[in-house]
Write a structure and sequence with these properties.
heterotrimer, A mainly alpha (306), B alpha/beta (356), C mainly alpha (425), A: 306 residues, mainly alpha, MetI-like fold, C: 425 residues, two-stranded antiparallel sheet, two-stranded antiparallel ribbon, 18 helices, flat, disordered N terminus, cell inner membrane (chain A), ABC transporter permease subunit (chain A), transmembrane (chain A), transmembrane helix (chain A), cell membrane (chain A)
Chain lengths: 306, 356, 425
């Protein structure tokens, strides 16, 4: 990005303007995400910086909204914080309840999406695969079709087959989220497989390994980073999803985003910002994991970073 | 499929073996649900051991219809408005409730005579009387608007307005603001001209109005400074005024009041517990207890005498009640006959008007 | 495994290549390939079946609902039969009125009169109450039924009402598509435009397209310089800056929408900052939320990474010597950009723009939370008809139109860019 020596004065001006513009866009990208973090420590029930916060007076900051995440929905929030108080939190606190649901739904839909998706990606990346393009288009389409349409369709479908009466908790919402996560698994795993050197599996075969051994000892370790990042994408998709939950989840299957939707519409108290802050930290962790995996995968495949 | 079914039976056996009896109650959220939890749910669980699960909706009548028509009912009791209770009952979406099972008043008066006129219907039992009022931020208008007409007067009282996203109560308020006496409102609304007149009135403030859906939103919009005055359910404003010391003031003019009633959707999964809950919650003491938490009038005559102070122990409830005589100088009783038939038509028109 | 023997004399029989077990080589090869195809397909089949069950079939059922609604025909059998026997335009006789009254009485008894009225009301506004009030009085009606009904309400003699009842007496109809396009049928069954105060869907489709185009354009303008910067910086630096793009991408949609609400409120961070800086007066705070502005700002932010990433992946491999060569041949920097650099990035622009446009056309959550009345998109109306008005057939018809539009764009994307070139992160 260094300026060539032959640059005219006009170009120099443009060069600096360009840098300012880019900085502004980066601020636009990141500021809304970072701004919720300090605001979640607000001692007052406002969504804006108070005077005390701006002068870094410790009194302007507090953990009261994080505390509220624990106590909201409890039977006896004011009792002494002993063993039974924490039991009450675990049993009744709304945010704990929805977090638990989110994790359960996210976990099982990820397993489902990753398992089926990885198998299919292995098939899709074989050169003999017939109707590859059309099948791929169908499998990716849940990502493209507006979720409201999928959710509406599933609402009627699940009512018709009476899925609630099957007695399997979370089944409907898990399948719905798996459907949404599958395109991500397909995309990441096929991308990993596209760089896969097929002579490796042929070498394994020629050295006497049967197909199963070849798969587990040779193919699997190489595509594992792709599978894991696909799984992370699928998990985040489920963890973040709210439209499906709004349309098809039972009242005992509410998730974190669903509870946030409630909270946002009724009152965006800083308690919502506390949840938001926790979620930002979670996404930073996930992002870091994916980045590490990506680099590892590139190293394994012998592709130079980038 | 077969495998899934086997799996499901296995999981059912594990998952629900230990599940205790429970009843799911759908209500309007926010301060109102809080008052119900305190006055009904907690004592009910303490007495019967049945757990009460509380679910919120913007208007519980809509999900009931969707649930019953889709054949997937997941709630046991819902709290709905009068016209909706009649309409849902007419459409066969509710279980009938025999009023003779309801508890008598402490002095032995049977429930059928103790409830306020019209508070018991084929499928519903009234719990409270509430009012759709308008309220303003006293820091913005120290003198304050005093009449319904002021709500529609953007020049005299500049600033954003908040209104419920729906036809009901808005059309009546618009006509009353236009000078129509309360007792002529529904006769006028029966005519196309009357409806047009109401929409013309709403047109005046349409560009400056933020439309709310959940009852908890209007006090929040006022508190955030997003609006300077808004229509709201009176109890929500009271809760913000008294419990949170917000500078709000209700204008008791041109408001529309009606019942909220408990109903049981057809095919409720826990019918017996639902009936128990309705019986328990609508007895004289419980209805009076709810008024300790929110300023709504109880649906029973015998409860009236038991209403005293707010749960803080100092605030007198009477002046805040939508049923107090001094608050009823220019108020309109919502007509269920009108809304039972016209609700969907006028809402359709309202939404077309809003989108344009 | 098929062992192929080509060198031995056995393998060459009559000039035909054969395998060790004597099959013609061509056939054996075809066998082997068919088996490989089957194997590949077998790996895909479980997922394909899953997607068909949880995605294709439900959407198919939804589409079916858009042309099928038996709310009238199932609950009004006698009058439906009368319509079957007569032809369009026949004036209703006493037999028709008798059948109608009998059906209304039966429907009122079965508590389905509301369903019937609602179905007719979809086609002819203001008629639901006609049916429900007739249902309440049905027991008192006595022959002659024509006079009895007309006494109740003169609208019962309206030829348009009878025309509508005839059209809804069949469970199948394309009328919900007409309604979704702001069209209706008049009493003769001709297609006309809906009354002016009900024309909203055409406008909403146009608004959705226009706002999506605007958001796509904004994303492109913002993404291009950033993607270029990331592409030309040394890798270590650009990887670091890339985090600023990827973090929003990984952050929950609701978190980002919440943040924008916090920023855009009248008492929010942006307004407060501007008031503190004296840019606007305390009384004239700018309304940036609960209107179109809110929808545009928040959606641009949320979709921006979807534009940056494809642009970046196209720009990174572009060799800088092309631009240098153009400069050395005398082009100004602007010409060099326009004639040399820009054309090379067109595939990225196409991929990003199409992706952002497709995603924004179907957006629901963000407009619902920050859009107010003027920032609603077509998805919000589908949700409204699904959850509030409960006009499910109309919701299905709107969804079908939206789906058709999205699928056309998707097909275009596949044609131009190729689905397998979709990359994440």
């Amino acid at each position: 990005m260094a300026l060539p020596i032959y640059a005219s004065p006009l170009e120099r001006v443009w060069h600096w303007t360009y840098k300012v513009i880019c900085t502004a866009i980066f601020i636009f990208l990141i500021a809304p995400i970072l701004i919720v973090i300090p605001l979640s420590f607000n001692a007052e029930p406002y969504f804006t910086f108070t005077e005390k916060m701006l002068s870094f007076d410790p009194e302007g900051y507090s953990l009261r909204w994080y505390d509220m995440l624990l106590t909201f929905g409890m039977q006896a929030p004011d009792g002494p914080r002993d063993w039974s108080w924490w039991r009450d939190v675990l049993a009744n606190a709304t945010w704990f309840d929805v977090a638990w649901n989110s994790i359960i739904i996210g976990f099982f839909s990820t397993i489902l999406a990753t398992g089926l998706g990885t198998l299919a990606a292995l098939g899709l990346s074989r050169s003999e695969m017939p109707w590859r393009r059309s099948i791929m288009a169908v499998l990716i389409s849940p990502m493209i079709v507006p979720i409201i349409i999928t959710a509406t369709g599933l609402f009627f479908f699940y009512s018709k087959i009476e899925i609630q009466k099957w007695g399997v908790p979370y089944l409907g919402i898990i399948m719905a989220h798996a459907t949404l996560g599958i395109p991500f698994v397909i995309i990441t795993v096929t991308a990993t497989l596209s760089g896969f050197d097929h002579s490796l599996s042929r070498a394994a075969a020629s050295l006497g390994a049967n197909p199963r051994t070849t798969f587990f000892k040779v193919i699997m370790p190489l595509i594992l980073p792709g599978v894991v990042s696909g799984a992370l994408f699928a998990f985040v998709t489920s963890f973040d999803e709210v439209v499906m939950v709004l349309f098809i989840a039972g009242h005992d299957e509410q998730t974190i985003p669903r509870q946030m939707w409630n909270g946002i519409r009724e009152q965006i108290s800083p308690a919502i910002l506390a949840v938001a802050t926790i979620l930002v930290v979670v996404s930073i962790a996930l992002l870091a994991t994916v980045e590490i995996l990506r680099r590892r995968s590139e190293k394994l495949r012998g592709v130079t970073a980038g | 499929m077969k495998k899934i079914l086997t799996l499901s039976t296995a999981l059912t056996a594990v998952g629900f073996a230990a599940a205790a009896q429970e009843v799911t109650v759908m209500s309007w959220g926010g301060a109102y649900t809080v008052s119900q939890v305190e006055a009904y749910h907690k004592p009910f669980t303490a007495e019967t051991g049945i757990k009460v699960v509380s679910v919120d909706a913007d208007n519980p009548a809509t999900p009931i219809k969707a649930m019953v028509e889709a054949g997937n009912v997941t709630i046991d009791v819902a709290d709905v408005e009068y016209a909706d209770a009649i309409r849902l009952c007419d459409e066969g979406l509710l279980e009938e409730i025999d009023p003779s099972i309801l508890p008598a008043a402490p002095d032995g008066t049977p429930a059928t005579e103790d409830f306020l006129p019209g508070a018991l219907t084929d499928c519903a039992v009234a719990s409270i009387v509430f009012s759709t009022v308008f309220a303003y931020d006293t820091t913005k208008f120290p003198e304050g608007p005093t009449t319904m007409a002021d709500f529609f007067d953007l020049e005299g009282f500049p600033g954003k307005r908040g209104m419920r996203k729906g036809a009901k109560a808005n059309l009546e308020m618009a006509l009353m603001a236009d000078g129509v006496p309360a007792d002529e409102v529904y006769a006028l609304l029966e005519t196309d001209e009357g409806v047009a007149q109401a929409f013309a009135m709403l047109d005046k403030i349409k560009a400056d109005t933020i439309w709310w859906e959940a009852g908890a939103q209007p006090p929040q919009l006022l508190a955030d400074g997003e609006v300077v005055m808004t229509t709201a359910y009176n109890g929500r404003i009271f809760a913000a005024q008294v419990a949170e010391a917000k500078p709000f003031e209700i204008v008791w003019d041109g408001q529309v009041y009606e019942y909220d009633l408990f109903v049981i959707p057809k095919g409720a999964p826990n019918m017996e517990a639902a009936l128990e809950f309705v019986k328990f919650s609508t007895d004289t003491q419980r209805l009076a207890d709810q008024a300790k938490w929110i300023s709504y009038g109880p649906g029973r005559k015998s409860s009236g005498a038991l209403v005293g102070l707010y749960q803080d122990g100092v605030t007198e409830m009477a002046p805040h009640m939508p049923t107090s005589a001094e608050n009823l100088t220019n108020a309109l009783a919502s007509s269920y006959e009108f809304w039972v038939d016209r609700d969907s038509e006028l809402n359709e028109r309202f939404n077309a008007w809003l989108a344009q | 495994m098929v062992a192929i023997e080509t060198s031995g004399g056995e393998g060459l029989r009559g000039g035909l290549l054969t395998t060790a077990d004597g099959k013609p080589l061509k056939q054996a090869l075809a066998h082997a390939q068919a088996r490989a195809r089957r194997k590949a397909l077998l790996l895909v089949v479980p997922l394909l079946a899953f997607i068909v069950i949880t995605f294709v079939v439900p959407i198919g059922q939804l589409l079916f609902r858009s042309i099928h609604n038996d709310g009238f025909s199932a609950n009004m059998p006698q009058i439906s039969a009368w319509f079957d026997e007569t032809k369009a335009g026949d004036a209703p006789d006493e037999a028709a009125y008798a059948a109608l009254v009998a059906d209304i009485a039966a429907a009122a008894e079965a508590r389905t009169i509301g369903v019937v009225g609602t179905r007719v009301n979809y086609e002819l506004s203001g008629t639901r109450s006609l049916f429900t009030s007739a249902g309440r009085n049905a027991e008192d009606l006595e022959p002659p039924y024509r006079e009895a009904l007309l006494d109740l309400n003169a609208k019962w003699g309206d030829p348009q009402l009878w025309g509508v009842m005839r059209s809804v007496s069949s469970a199948y109809s394309a009328n919900f598509y007409l309604a979704a396009l702001d069209l209706a049928r008049d009493e003769n069954g001709d297609i006309v435009r809906a009354p002016e105060d009900r024309r909203i869907y055409g406008m909403l489709f146009m608004r959705t397209l226009w706002l999506s185009a605007l958001i796509t354009g904004l994303c492109l303008i913002l993404a291009y310089p950033v993607a270029h910067l990331l592409a030309v910086l040394p890798l270590a630096k650009s990887n670091l800056l890339m985090i600023l793009v990827l973090l929003p991408f990984w952050t929950s949609l609701l978190v980002r929408t919440t943040s924008w609400m916090v920023m855009l409120q009248e008492q929010g961070v942006i307004n407060n900052t501007m008031v503190a800086l004296g840019l606007v007066g305390n009384e004239s705070r700018i309304q940036m939320m609960y209107n179109q502005a809110g929808t545009i700002i928040a959606m641009t932010h949320i979709l921006l990474p979807f534009m940056i990433l494809p642009l970046y992946s196209v720009m990174r491999p572009i060799n800088p010597s092309y631009v240098r060569a153009a400069r050395s041949l005398g082009a100004t920097s602007w010409t060099a950009f326009r004639r040399v650099y820009l054309p090379q990035t067109l595939p990225g622009i196409g991929a990003g723009a199409l992706l952002v446009f497709i995603l924004s056309v179907g957006y629901y959550i963000t407009p619902a939370l920050v859009g107010g009345a003027s920032g609603q998109l077509i998805s919000n109306l589908i949700a409204y008809h699904m959850q509030d008005s409960l006009n499910w057939s109309l919701a299905a018809a709107l969804a079908a139109l939206l789906l058709a539009g999205v699928l056309i764009l998707y097909w275009l994307y596949d044609r131009l860019i190729g689905i397998d070139n979709l990359k994440l992160g």
